Predict the structure.
Amino acid sequence: MSKARFEAFSDGVIAVIITVLVLEIPLPSNHINSNELFSVLVFLLQ
């Protein structure tokens, strides 16, 4: 296996692992409503 193929493979594996970790994070059920979440996201994107 060439170095470029190995790098691409390892990047893919890491991306899958990170995706699984993110999907496993539970969202808070009643700590924040959608309006508050939207305003926080807008603030962070400025």
